[in-house]
């Protein structure tokens, strides 16, 4: 490889790109023999630092002999504006050739997968290279060994929670909706004497994520050592995983998959299992809701995924149980952080026992059976006992206190002040409730940014309702948002929901 | 789709990104319900302009309620720093779903391909979406109809040369090396009475592109109307195609293919044919050098490509002949813009008739047969006649003058002043000459940026040489570069060349 080196002047731009990118005038690029997306090494003789960047070229933005760089690059080099730097072409990292290998349909070794994950983590691959990798996996998927290798690489690349025993349990829901079963399962499992350090996500397009709902009750942004300490003390936490740097490369891969909604099975499994491995979980229940409006559409697909989860778990020394659940209906009647949190607390307080409570006990029961606490077939009963006895509530309040309590009971959880009840206009029967449309309505009312805003359903599928009977209630922080939500509920575009819930009433 | 709109403050960044990208604080993105790589519309109430951008998010770069935008976006909106803009999520362009369709292995319609090319041209697709498209084509390639549709879409998306007759000829070389047969073929064809408006590329990794060599003789950066005028007047031009906006999207696709060296056959063919269609060519000869160090490695691959070129041409009303040539040796003895230009002029002046001259006459002959000027099998003879009679030289000088002459004869072309002759150290026979290594050596001497720098070979494969006999000559603009080249020629890493040319001598 040619090793031509050119002296240039540093030209920093005041912007953080989050990527190691350098910009050269097209003529300089030609002189160096590099094309856009090739790599150069920039070194600063004064600071004796050097860095490898992906090249972009321009004909207008930069004059010749200037090495343009974003803040990230400038900081790492410690270089000043106008200072002399040395620029030379360098070969792409080896991982680019591994990506090409996968593009060509060949399976990757553990070492190769580790190199790709490492370079993604270090921002050493361009977006185009990263997209090439994601496309390759979409086409060829992973075999079992590759899935295991990807799981290990993803979890080992980030921080890891480590416990001195293996009684660490966890749960995960693939394409979940609303309801927050997690906030019932975690205290049941912790009350049963196990560790369950649960990291959750915030909402992106739904009305609330588990982290958003839990944040109504307590602080969810905790550092990793605090999470370990609380788990050791009270048995469980429910925190936001977003800022924790557990398997951080997973988030980068998900970002790239997003535009085409690419979700190769192997990558989904590695992604979930890596996060479970990162918190040291040894017993995991995977909730697979099946339905036309959720991620997994058919029983066949759910079964295929279940088998793969179990196989990967085996290779990693983890015991996995995957459970198909009903994804055709909302898994709770509330949509919005506070509304869902209040609903969960009411279940823990013994004030209601509905489908969400039942589902939570079944999933917790699976975990209790898996870890050997109880005989097969008796897990749900034990979970219910822990719930109805009030032990789960007590444990939940310990967890909330340990995380810095905001609200300890359902009484402490308030709804947004402006509300509107939507009533049935005729008699009839509820035939379908579209979860996505409910979430959308809650978002229009302000959720999840307005924590107390959202939607409460008074009915479920199969209910017979009478004219004038309330079917749902919208809560919002101000009249404008309430008006927006009500207006949307009336518009054709949202009528999908009205058609379904209200077609016999509105 | 939700239509939540948020008022924000414009925060322009002083940098041209060449892409329509907006930057939002992660919290604002969450409030709007958009993920990185989703799209938002930004509108400015004052200027009444609006624009769709791909979203990137940040937690550090921007505070909440700021809509970050690069210069491109700011200019189009005409917005001032701090001014109020309205931001709302919008759906991705339809072309993203067409890309997904191709990713899933389905053939695309002409309309769908046109939409993708249009959106690539308008920078409406993110790099990741563009990379997804290129990967999809790499996996599934195009069928004949898709190749034809891509060719049309690429050429119609850019400027087009139009002539009022169909006697427009052209040639193209797939993965060519050195030698510049184009600069011999164009004057032969123009002298025979046909139009041949040849657009050429500059060097990227070779010692010179045709545009670089022609630029030693004349101005190659001409606007499209001038190209048409000169072609109508003298029959031909040899210009740089880079700034002409002929099939501009092709360049974008090639850029994305580059990191993985992806080159699906259908895309190569569409790329070449689009540029030919853009200049109005009706008769085209495709030169396919075959050899281990050039783009096409086997006869089978060359035959497959030849058939596809001919089939696509038929659908577009173009007559194509594809010719396999020997790609195992340099197609000329010179490397570097001026050295290659001088060599070509010496052939046109009748001072030498070597392998390059023979190849040029054969390719020109194919064109003369294709257009019906001469009976099959007699084309080469006619081309040679035009060459040896001096008609081609006369025509070349007309072309050079029309393009603003810098040099009219081989005498006017000078080499760089510092030179070093490399001699054979023992007796022996030349077994192989590695074209890539020759080009690299010329680049070390300064080519193509230093137009007069380069390498001249005195031998060809099969030549018997004696100890002390010159085998090659290096020219450079200064002692430092000459020293660099000589030093590299001695180093192990460049010794590949010595091993090959010089293994019996050094």
TrEMBL record, chains A, B:
Residues 429-496 form the Pyrimidine nucleoside phosphorylase C-terminal domain. Its EC number is 2.4.2.57. GO terms for cellular component: cytosol. SUPFAM superfamilies: Nucleoside phosphorylase/phosphoribosyltransferase catalytic domain, Nucleoside phosphorylase/phosphoribosyltransferase N-terminal domain, Pyrimidine nucleoside phosphorylase C-terminal domain. Pfam families: Glycos_trans_3N (PF02885), Glycos_transf_3 (PF00591), PYNP_C (PF07831). Keywords: Glycosyltransferase, Transferase. One of its GO terms (biological process) is pyrimidine nucleobase metabolic process. One of its GO terms (molecular function) is pentosyltransferase activity. PANTHER family: THYMIDINE PHOSPHORYLASE. This is AMP phosphorylase. It comes from Candidatus Iainarchaeum sp.
């Amino acid at each position: 490889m040619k090793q031509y080196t050119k002296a240039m002047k540093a030209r920093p731009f005041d912007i953080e790109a989050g990527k190691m990118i350098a910009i050269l005038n097209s003529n300089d690029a030609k002189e160096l023999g590099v094309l856009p997306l090739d790599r150069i090494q920039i070194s600063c003789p004064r600071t004796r630092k050097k860095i490898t960047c992906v090249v972009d070229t321009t004909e207008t933005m930069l004059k010749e002999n200037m090495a343009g760089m974003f803040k990230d690059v400038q900081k790492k080099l410690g270089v000043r504006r106008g200072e002399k730097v040395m620029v030379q072409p360098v070969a792409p990292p080896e991982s680019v050739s591994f990506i090409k290998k996968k593009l060509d349909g060949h399976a990757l070794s553990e070492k190769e997968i580790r190199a790709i994950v490492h370079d993604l983590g270090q921002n050493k691959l361009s977006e185009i290279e990263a997209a090439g990798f994601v496309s390759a996996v979409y086409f060829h998927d992973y075999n079992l060994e590759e899935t295991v290798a990807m799981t290990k690489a993803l979890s080992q690349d980030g921080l890891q929670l480590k416990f001195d025993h293996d009684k660490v349990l966890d749960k995960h829901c693939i394409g979940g909706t609303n309801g927050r079963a997690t906030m019932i399962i975690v205290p049941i499992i912790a009350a049963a004497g196990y560790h369950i350090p649960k990291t959750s996500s915030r909402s992106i397009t739904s009305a609330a994520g588990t982290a958003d709902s839990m944040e109504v009750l307590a602080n969810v942004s905790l550092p990793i050592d605090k999470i370990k300490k609380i788990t050791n003390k009270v048995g469980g936490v429910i925190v936001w995983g977003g800022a924790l740097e557990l398997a951080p490369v997973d988030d980068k891969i998900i970002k790239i998959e997003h535009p085409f909604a690419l979700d190769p099975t192997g990558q989904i499994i590695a992604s979930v299992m890596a996060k479970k491995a990162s918190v040291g979980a040894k017993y995991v229940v995977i909730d697979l809701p099946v339905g036309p409006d959720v991620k997994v559409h058919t029983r066949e697909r759910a079964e295929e995924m279940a088998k793969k989860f179990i196989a990967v778990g085996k290779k990693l020394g983890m015991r996995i149980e995957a459970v198909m659940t009903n994804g055709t209906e909302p898994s709770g009647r509330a949509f919005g952080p506070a509304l869902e949190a209040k609903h969960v607390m009411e279940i823990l307080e013994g004030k209601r026992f509905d489908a969400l409570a039942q589902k939570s006990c079944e999933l917790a029961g699976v975990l209790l059976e898996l870890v050997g606490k109880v005989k097969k077939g008796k897990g749900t009963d034990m979970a219910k006992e822990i719930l109805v006895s009030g032990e789960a509530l007590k444990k939940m309040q310990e967890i909330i206190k340990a995380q810095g309590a905001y609200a300890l009971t359902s009484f402490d959880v308030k709804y947004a002040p402006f509300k509107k009840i939507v009533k049935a206009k005729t008699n009839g029967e509820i035939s379908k409730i579209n979860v996505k449309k409910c979430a959308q309505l809650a978002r229009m009312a302000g959720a999840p940014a307005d924590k107390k805003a959202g939607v409460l359903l008074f009915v479920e599928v199969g209910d017979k309702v009478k004219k004038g009977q309330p079917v749902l209630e919208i809560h919002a922080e101000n009249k404008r948002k309430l008006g927006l939500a009500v207006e949307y509920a009336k518009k054709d575009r949202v009528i999908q929901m009205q058609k379904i819930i209200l077609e016999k009433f509105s």
